[in-house]
# Entry
Amino acid sequence: MRVLSLLLLGACTGDTTKDTDTADVDTDADTDADADADTDTDADTDTTETADTSDTSDTGTPPTDTVVIDFEAKIPPVMFPFGDEIASVVADPTDSTNTVAELVKPKTAQTWAGTTIATCLGDTTVPLPLTAKQTRMSLRIWSPDAGADVLLKLEPSGGGTAVETLSTTKTAKAWETLEFDFTQHVKGTPALDVAQTYDRLVVFPGFGTTGTAKTYYIDDITFLDAVFDVECPKIPKADVLLDFDDAGTTYTVTPFGGGVTGSVVADPDDAANTVVTVDKTLVDSPEWGGATLSTLANDSVPAIPLTATRLIITAQVRSPASGVQWLLKVEDQNDAGRFIETTATTSGANTWETLVFDLGNPNPNAQGFNDTYTYDRISVFPNFGTIGVSGPHYVDDIGLAQ
# Structure
């Protein structure tokens, strides 16, 4: 069992981990050119906000908006590009003292290429307080072209329907502010549903066009007309299911997939602690390679007391890079067709962090919880979805959230 300071994402401007809780490959975005969009063409040359809310004026006017994501935190937001987009945090091309997101659409990029930008666990942001009257967001963008469509998409990480809307740049090679009104959703896509909790944000620059090796810069993603706290939700306390430290327990690691290895080893950061390592060692180790972790016969563990309202499993993991997707699967040892699985993604490299696996939001397979099933087998899949050599990956303290 580890004792550590939990690494939360550079969340919420600095306190601190598909479909999500991983990066969501948003291929469902609508390319309908008839979509309505509000565009604010006023150039914004202010420096990036580092506080939770937008700047007050020199006269002391209270803020009315909240900067949800900027890129100034010591641990910056984590970005999960898809569709061959490339994302990184870089210096502002017009102000070296400012830090921004760089989004590149290479020639191989899809029309729907984009990037999920996360500040909290599970590839999420703080919940956005959308209401019937609070429906707008903005972001600053530096675009290589005027007339470039930018799609902003909000998703509920716990399941539900996304809402997406478009805005269009009017300035080339200069910063401007775009506004997005989610009552003006893209034609053919779901409307805003304020009864849902939207806590995942995806940006699609140059939306609807194939890659042409163009670069966009993004900063100061802001919720308009409301001031609120941007502190991330706390990691839930958990009852330990597996911690690999009990001298009276036999821990078995059963790898599967070509070239996948697994064993109980000393913690690389604390030799007094015992953890499990699972690694892919071959160039063709499969994307689904992983290991089953057990303490009983038939690769099982004591039945996990899941209920319809208790479906969160946490695990401490250590991977060699940020953006590594882990899949966790629980199943019936006597019927492999009865299972739930979901993903979460690392935010740090070579450091221990807690991932939250929400089995109430199963993916990539949609089989959900069934209270007539017994779930008594646990498997982990580090770097899920990626073929080839990968590691070292470590896991410890798998628990069921209280």
User: Anything to note?
Assistant: Residues 17 and 210 are 30 Å apart (CA to CA). Confidence is low (pLDDT under 50) at residues 3-59. Residues 11-223 form a domain with the Jelly Rolls fold (CATH 2.60.120.430). The longest strand covers residues 95-105.
